[in-house]
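Re: beginner question about structure tokens

> Can someone show what the tokenized structure looks like for a real chain? I only ever see the sequence side.

Sure, here's an example I had lying around. Input first:
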Amino acid sequence: MGAVYLARQEDIEQDIAIKVLLREAAQSQEIVQRFYREAKVISMLTHPNIIRVFIFGRREGLLYLAMEFVKGRELREDLRTGQPMDELRVIRIMKQACSALAEAHDLGIIHRDLKPDNILLTSFRGDNDFVKILDFGIAKITENNDSNQAKLTQAGIVYGTPEYLSPEQAQALELDHRTDIYSLGVMLYEMMTGRVPFMAESPVKILTKHVFEEPVSPSQIAPGRVSATMENIIMKAMAKDPKQRFSNALDMFKALVRREQEILTQKGLGADANWIPGGELTGMFQAIEVPNSFKQRTTGPNAAPHTPSPTAQVASQPGYSTAPDDTMTVAFPNEYGAQQLQARQDSSKKLILAVIGVGIVVLVALIALIIVLLLQR
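And the corresponding structure tokens:
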């Protein structure tokens, strides 16, 4: 339907990608409408893990879309070996994808074609796994339910790639954002085991498996490599019933963070061991490093009755050392930090009141002394 060209804005020495709709394809009103919709969808998105669009227009009869040019590789390239990927790396990549999709879903946009081919990994601030989600060409805008959208989503037509389609998408049923959650689950399955959950000799048979068959558990495909926590995340994301999946991409993100914290704690790694450069731009939560002196409060026989929250963000307490040889990875609930802050505030108030009291006593004594001296004269 189209071609993508590498172009250069010579005045500012910037490379960009220009997607052009071929003249033959432009004869189809449906294809033209899809091209317009892709431009609309991408222009609505501002997340750094989603490809940016600069301008959309028509010139000399050609429809074009000028986009960010990203030098990188498809996630598909890293999966061609058929070997499982490192789990911490998998989590880093999937957290970014979840963070990006959370924005898209909030805007009523469903990607509908999530797969390793549409996940670009590029270099950013020294990290080689910064995610860029591509190709919103068959994305669906769920809000407003305009007539153009209805015409483009015809009953009985299945769009997408068979290996990564949700059961409802395979049946051409009405979709919501949870179809993307299923596709994320399939990619997570493949990254952790080295293979997709369903394979067959024809696309129709693959779609049938998505609808009627349960996948072999990831821990059976890759024994010893898939923990119970990670398996639960994968199987929840891939539930046949959308209601049984994560309710949104942010919930899946949080589940991945919990598994990430398990790994970091088991390996005795610091909180920054899985940090993504640029993570501050995406709003991804990070754990903190705290002294071992807190271990008794969280893991000993006298541990506090609450369970630490892996996604809580708590500033490091001043006065404590966070040297690598005296730290552990943990995150306390927000109320713990609030209690500490309140205690410091109460102590400060008491100290101030004490100083004021002493000052008043001294002032009264000085006034009395001055009066006595005046009377003696």
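Each token stands for a local structural state, so reading them left to right follows the chain. The longest strand covers residues 2-9.
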